[in-house]
Amino acid sequence: MLRRPRPMIVRYTMRKRIARDRSSRRLPTLQEAVVVINGAAARRIGATPERYLSCHEWSQWASLPAARRTEWLCGRVALKRAFLDLCHGAVRDLEVGYRAGGRPMIAGHDDVYCSISHSGGWSTGATSRIPIGVDIEAVRPRRAELLRYITTERERRLVRRLTVAGDDLLTLLWTAKEAVLKALSVGLGVHPCRAEVTAIEERAAVVELAADVPLCPRRWNVRMERIARFYHSVATPCAASGE
Q1: Residue 135 annotated as lining a ligand binding site
Q2: pLDDT tens readout for residues 184-207
């Protein structure tokens, strides 16, 4: 008997510290917000197309095959809830569009960076004041040679000390690299080996672009999390990484 997925919403927020002086008692401002949601949780909170989608989005949703509708809707729900954590407004007034290059955006809010990812009935959305990329991927059996395809020899030596291995390790590294490449709006237009993991722990990594990749920022912090049977990664630029 198949078990129904447990309703789950995961939310992350990061606040930027602001230096205080004697004349100011400003509180830290929200720097980024990330929401991860599955279909069961969306139903629990009443995240229906009528409540969360604009007229144009509703038309897009209705044109999709039935099997894709829940995941697509969850992506919009996650991104809009993340945006409302970062900013203010009414959810029905928000519409998800796309910039040149395919990066998602909230229409009318060009100053906010956005990212969406879907996998196996789960979706994640992120909004930030700085460039951001997210990726979520289910852990599933994959061909062993795929690890050699997406990593360099130096990376394979680096990850030997981690406790994760096999399909978990492959999925962890894939989501970390994909989050960075999505933040740069290139996806697999850049080979995964050109975004190299140069430092890694169980839940954090640093990813650096190869010297011949003409993109900035070049160094990225990545936070990784195991959620149910998925790995979820969030990438933001390292401090002073505009070079």
Answers
A1: yes
A2: 999 878 999 999 999 999 899 999
